[in-house]
Design a protein that fits this description.
Radius of gyration: 35 Å
Distance between the termini: 101 Å
Largest sheet: none
Strand content: under 5%
Order of helices and strands: HHHHHHHHHHHHHH
Number of strands: 0
Number of helices: 14
Helix content: 55-70%
């Protein structure tokens, strides 16, 4: 039972490695042999045939797809695979070594620096490292690959222009989510401005507004101006904060009463000061009544 599980794990890992490689950009000749290799992998009855399949998979990859240290360990790795024909743990370890030796950040990009895999926030692939951006690419962004939104490519180009070379794929996904949220908030504000404009211009009722919801360019501009004025604003300069702190510290702190209880600030510093005055009047009235009763 344990040997069967080990063989299944090794077979699954080989299938994942082969499926993960963009063969159309790495080695187009493998596409013709791919169906036969996959068929042999699925129909392999024993572990002895997994070794040759692993060797053929490694041989199909170009040496540029591996790290520079792979050339030093390649012969030893191949000899271990041949000797581990009936040793599933060693064969599984060799498959892991092959997967770690592949430079995924290089083969998952085409010659133009565009990703060849679908963008995913939790992608297991290596971090794409785009090449330096040329002037032509900056003026005319390349067409996004299948499964990648155009906005994601624009974000990657923007990161490259800012000098960011190393980032996880989840960074692009998070920036996409931030862009979508900010855009939706701006459009919601623009819709509110559009409704208010129609109410003021036409005096329409609520049902008519819902039926004729039209967001114009001026509504969107007003929403963007409102968001820009109240969002992403920097804090006050240090000099301003220091001056305000000095003005506050120059005023002496109020003398605390020796009686236990709640100490309120000055009346002019209390927002609901009217309530305090009313409460104080009630207290004075209660005290006067108590004095009359005592007399």
């Amino acid at each position: 039972m344990e040997a069967t599980d080990a063989a299944a794990r090794t077979r699954k890992r080989l299938a994942e490695i082969e499926e993960r490689v963009p063969w159309g950009a790495v080695k187009k000749s493998w596409v013709q042999r791919r169906s036969e290799w996959v068929k042999q992998l699925e129909q392999t009855p024993d572990a002895a045939a997994l070794g040759p399949l692993l060797l053929s998979l490694e041989n199909a990859l170009k040496m540029e797809s591996f790290s520079s240290a792979w050339t030093l360990h390649r012969e030893g790795w191949r000899s271990r695979v041949v000797s581990a024909a009936h040793n599933l743990p060693l064969l599984e370890k060799a498959a892991i070594e092959l997967e770690e030796a592949i430079q995924w950040d290089r083969i998952l990009l085409d010659r133009g620096g565009r990703p060849l895999v679908q963008l995913s926030a939790g992608a297991a692939c290596g971090t794409p490292v785009p090449p330096p951006l040329g002037e032509h690419d900056a003026d005319a962004p390349p067409e996004p690959p299948e499964g990648v939104p155009r906005l994601a490519v624009n974000i990657m180009l923007l990161l490259r222009l800012l000098g960011v070379r190393n980032y996880e794929p989840s960074v692009v996904a998070m920036l996409l989510e931030l862009t979508h949220r900010y855009t939706s908030d701006v459009l919601k504000d623009a819709l509110v401005y559009s409704r208010m404009r129609q109410l003021r211009r036409r005096g329409a009722n609520g049902a008519a507004l819902v039926a004729n919801e039209v967001v114009e360019l001026q509504d969107t501009k007003l929403a963007v101006q409102g968001r820009t004025a109240h969002s992403w604003t920097p804090p006050p300069p240090r000099e301003v904060i220091s001056q305000q702190a000095a003005e506050v510290n120059n005023e002496p702190m109020p003398v605390l009463s020796k009686r236990p209880g709640i100490c309120l600030p000055k009346p002019e510093a209390c927002e609901p000061c009217a309530r305090h005055l009313v409460a104080r009047g009630i207290d004075e009235g209660m005290l006067s009544d108590a004095e009359d009763e005592a007399k």
